[in-house]
Amino acid sequence: MAGPSREHRSSSGVVRRWWLSGWVAAVAVVPLLLTAPPSTSDLVVSALLLLAAWVLSPRFFPTSPSDRDARRLARETGVPVVYWRPGCSYCLRLRIALGRTGNRAVWVDVTRDPAASARVRAANSGDEMVPTVFVGDAATTNPRPAWVRERLPQR
């Protein structure tokens, strides 16, 4: 037996990410429920944990397509492909700076697809440097958010 299908693995990964995000959000609410009235430090800690819950959620970094699917989608819709890695502070900075407009790009996690990792290494002299953004066949590593925003389709 070959194991679960790609769709099953993908959806279970999203469920796991929602559980983690949900637990962090629940922990954020506990100090607010246990103290009346909550102190300033309780509010700050809760706010930071809620921010972490959002960053950990699938809403922040959507489910990653395969490299092949991302290239096809980018070609059909004329959007950039952003290759990223979980835990990368530069990727996080780019995602936060782009805000909701970042959803117009295709985001590919290089840790989930060897072909994506190979494409990034080919564009960066053998190094797996992220974020690497492809617009067509041209790659730019760690671009300014404004540069990426200019290449996103207008709505």
Question: How would you describe what is shown here?
Answer:
The protein is an alpha+beta fold and 155 residues long. The chain is 54% helix and 10% strand. The protein has 6 helices and 4 strands; from the N terminus they run H-H-H-E-H-E-H-E-E-H. The protein has helices spanning 6-34, 40-56, 67-77, 89-98, 114-123, 145-151; strands at 81-84, 106-109, 132-135, 138-141. The chain has a 4-stranded mixed beta sheet. It is elongated. The N and C termini lie far apart (45 Å). 22% of the residues are buried.
SSE blueprint:
Elements: H1 6-34, H2 40-56, H3 67-77, E1 81-84, H4 89-98, E2 106-109, H5 114-123, E3 132-135, E4 138-141, H6 145-151
Query: Which sequence of strands runs across the widest sheet?
Result: 2-1-3-4
Protein structure class:
alpha+beta
The amount of helix comes to 40-55%
Can you write the helix and strand succession as a string? HHHEHEHEEH
* Total E-strand runs: 4
Please state the CA-atom Rg, rounded to the nearest Å.
18 Å
Mean pLDDT: 82
**Main beta sheet, described?**
4 strands, mixed
* Distance between the ends: 45 Å
What share of the residues does DSSP label as strand, in percent?
Answer: 5-15%
- Unreliable residue stretches: 1-15
